[in-house]
C-alpha cells in the first residue's frame, strides 16, 4: 500500500486547522493524488496523527473532522485514515459514525489516544453493524469503559468484515471481556484482537476462563493480546487446555502478567503437542530459570512451529539462558528470541555472541548485540522486538522495520 508523497503530507499537516467551510489545500492535495494512477489503484493512508515530534502540527478537533470527512467523501482512493493522538471527542465520533455508514472504501481507521468515551464508542460500534469495508480499527487508549466495550462486543456478533480490533488500554472490564469472548464463538471473520490492560476487580481470573472457552470453538482468531490481565498459573492452565484443540491461533501475547515457572510448565506441555503457535510473548513476567528450562525442553525436542519467543525481563539467570541457547542450536525453526532485562553471566554472553557470530541467530532477530572490552564479551541492548512501535513510530528510522516490529513481518494479519 502506498502512502502520501512528502509534499502532499506537508500540505495536509500544515493545514490541519480545517475551520473554514471548505479547505482548498486539502482538496487540492487529494485532487492531485487522484490524478496519480498508482495511488488511485492501490489507495493511500491519510496520516493526520498529532504526535509528530519533529514537526509540531495542530491537532485535529471535532470541528475540523466535519470538513475533513466531507472532502474524503469525494476521494475513493483514500483507504486508510490515521487520526491518532488528536483531540477527538464523542462529538467527533458521531461525525465518524456517519462517515462509516456512508463510506465503502476506508479499510483502516486509527483513533488511538483521542478522548472518545462511552457514547462515542456506541456510535462507532453502531456504524460497524452495517459497514462492510473497514478491516482494521484501533481504539487504543480511548477511555470507553466497560459499557463502551460492550457495544463493540455486540457489534462483533453482526459484523463479518472486521479482521483486526484493538481495544487495549480502553478501561474495559470483566463484563466486556466475557461478552467479547461469547461474541467470538460466533464471529468467523476477526483474525486479531487486543484486549490489553482491562480493569479487573477480581483475582479469580474469570475473564481468562471465558476467553479459554472461546478458543475451544473459535477457528478464525490468529492473534490474541492478553497483556496486563494479572494472569497467574490457573489462567495459563485454562488457556493451554483450550489450545490443545485449537489450530488457528499463531500469536499469543501474555506479557506483563503474574506468570511464574508453574504456569510455564503448562506452556511447555502445550508446546510439545501444539504445532500452530508461531509467536509467544512472555515479556515482563517472572518465569525464572525453571520456566526457561521448561520452554527449552519443549523447543529442543518436540516443537517445530514456534518462530519467536520473548522472555524479556523475567528474572532468568545464566542457567536458564543457556538452556534457551541450547534450544536455538537444536531447533532451526526458532529464529527470533528476545532476552534483554535478564541476568547475564559470562557464559551467557559468550554463547549468544557465538550464536550471532556464526549466523545461527541473525542480528535483526534478537535484542542483544555483542561487543568486547579488554578481551571480554558483553551484550548491548538493541531496539528490536515484537512491536516496539505499537504506540508510536519514529520519524527517522534507526532500526529496520522488520527488526523493530518482527511480529508484523512474521505474521501479517491484514495489510494494515
From TrEMBL:
<dbReference type="InterPro" id="IPR032675">
    <property type="entry name" value="LRR_dom_sf"/>
</dbReference>
<dbReference type="Pfam" id="PF13516">
    <property type="entry name" value="LRR_6"/>
</dbReference>
<protein>
    <submittedName>
        <fullName>LRC34 protein</fullName>
    </submittedName>
</protein>
<dbReference type="InterPro" id="IPR052201">
    <property type="entry name" value="LRR-containing_regulator"/>
</dbReference>
<keyword id="KW-0677">Repeat</keyword>
<dbReference type="InterPro" id="IPR001611">
    <property type="entry name" value="Leu-rich_rpt"/>
</dbReference>
